[in-house]
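lol forgot to send this yesterday, sorry. struct tokens for the thing we talked abt
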């Protein structure tokens, strides 16, 4: 442990509806992220991206942080935080300024972005992102980097993402209570897209659907930049609920069955595959065919993909999505979902796993970690990393001691 000195690290915090995740990465001299720590904790304090229980959420953040810190051996103070929920709104705006000195400088770009931002945003909304889409110099459009160009008039088209002040401040309250500072807020699906997309896909046009527990958060890229964001109110929880009812089994076992045997197309299962299904209220476990489970899941998969397709159509961007649709988030892991999507949409569909990181990359190579990993990449792009120091031997034994004490208390309370 003593070989670990203070080095640049970036940490991401994804407070999801099903789980809280903290991922810690170190930043190398060549600006590459190496994952060094991951912590997760179940969370019951969030519903559809919005905090409904401060205590429960704070406790989950603490646990996930502690686990990630112990794994990495570094103590973190600051985190990039993912924000989601149906309080998010996004829209396009434009700004225009006169270019000083007849050549566009960084200051002109800042001014034109400010001008585009200066639209009326109500007091109860917080601006999360102002994403430049394109610039025009003296009417010439399609410019991505105007710095150094000659002209007298600079225009910018931007995409603005806002969220409810109240919802965001409840999120921040939990983070603060867990002893962490917020380095920046990032729209959840934007972070996920950062982790799972290539630049080529963004240039060709693509939509990312982050399928979480409570909802599916969408972001569209056209000509390399964000064109639209939206939320479809279905997620993995709806599948679990259907299974619990359809197979008459408790929610917990429905969740486990879905993860282990779930399949979105009956045609992909065979007659001889069976599984044990726990009964409700002390009833005996039964043996059920995997095909019967797929029969419960198939209509929900079709409905979910229809809702996603509807969103693609309503966005008006469908003809511009040359790279199709990328499904990510925990719920995208359901077997057969990608195949069903390709069949239904006549679009290229793939599953997005977080990439472009080293270190313990295998540990986070799941769609469920796309948001958390993307937060680190967002932080790196903003060159906002802090130096973290190694946790001392005493701190580690203190943490392990406190975990031991919690386990002891738990058993004492039980008997
Ligand atoms: N192997 C799997 N097959 C199918 N579904 C799965 C699998 N693993 C996890 N899920 C589902 O993924 C969902 C959780 O996904 P994720 O971790 O991305 O959600 P979250 O970020 O906590 O939620 P949200 O983004 O909605 O706030 C749960 O509903 C879970 O049942
Ligand atoms: Mg999520």
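and heres what i got for the seq, position by position
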């Amino acid at each position: 442990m003593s070989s670990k000195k203070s080095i640049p690290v970036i940490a991401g915090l994804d407070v999801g509806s099903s789980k809280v995740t903290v991922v810690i990465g170190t930043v190398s001299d060549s600006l590459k992220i190496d994952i060094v720590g991951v912590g997760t904790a179940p969370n019951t304090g969030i519903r559809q991206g919005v905090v409904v229980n401060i205590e429960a959420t704070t406790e989950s953040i603490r646990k996930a942080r502690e686990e990630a810190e112990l794994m990495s051996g570094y103590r973190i103070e600051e985190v990039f935080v993912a924000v989601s929920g149906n309080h998010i709104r996004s829209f396009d705006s434009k700004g225009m300024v006169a270019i000083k000195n007849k050549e566009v400088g960084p200051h002109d770009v800042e001014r034109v972005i400010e001008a585009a931002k200066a639209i009326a945003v109500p007091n109860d909304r917080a601006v999360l992102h102002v994403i430049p889409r394109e610039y025009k110099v003296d009417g010439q459009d399609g410019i991505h980097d105007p710095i150094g160009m000659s002209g007298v008039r600079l225009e910018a088209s931007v995409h603005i993402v806002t969220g409810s002040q109240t919802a965001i401040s409840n999120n921040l309250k939990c983070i603060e209570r867990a002893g962490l500072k917020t380095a920046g807020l990032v729209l959840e699906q934007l972070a996920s897209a950062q982790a799972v997309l290539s630049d080529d896909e963004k240039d060709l046009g693509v939509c990312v659907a982050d399928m979480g527990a409570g909802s599916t958060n969408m972001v569209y890229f056209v000509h390399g930049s964000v064109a639209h964001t939206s939320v479809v109110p279905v997620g993995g929880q709806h599948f679990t609920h259907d299974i619990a009812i359809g197979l008459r089994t408790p929610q917990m076992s429905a969740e486990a069955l879905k993860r282990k045997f779930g399949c979105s197309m009956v045609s992909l299962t065979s007659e001889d595959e069976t599984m044990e299904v726990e009964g409700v209220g002390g009833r005996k476990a039964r043996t059920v065919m995997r095909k019967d489970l797929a029969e419960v899941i198939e209509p929900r998969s079709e409905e979910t993909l229809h809702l996603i397709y509807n969103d693609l159509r309503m966005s008006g961007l469908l003809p511009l999505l040359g790279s199709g649709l990328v499904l990510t988030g925990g719920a995208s892991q359901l077997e057969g979902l990608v195949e069903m999507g390709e069949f239904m949409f006549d679009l290229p569909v793939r599953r997005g796993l977080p990439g472009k990181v080293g270190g313990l990359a295998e540990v986070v190579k799941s769609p469920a970690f796309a948001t958390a990993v993307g937060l680190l990449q967002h932080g790196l792009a903003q060159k906002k990393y802090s130096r973290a120091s190694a946790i001392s031997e005493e701190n580690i034994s203190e943490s392990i001691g406190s975990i031991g004490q919690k386990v002891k208390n738990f058993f004492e309370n039980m008997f």
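The pocket of adenosine-5'-triphosphate (ligand 1) is lined by residues 16-19, 49, 84, 212-215, 235-237, 240, 255, 258-259, 262, 329-331, 333-334, 368 (CB under 6 Å). anyway ping me if u want another try
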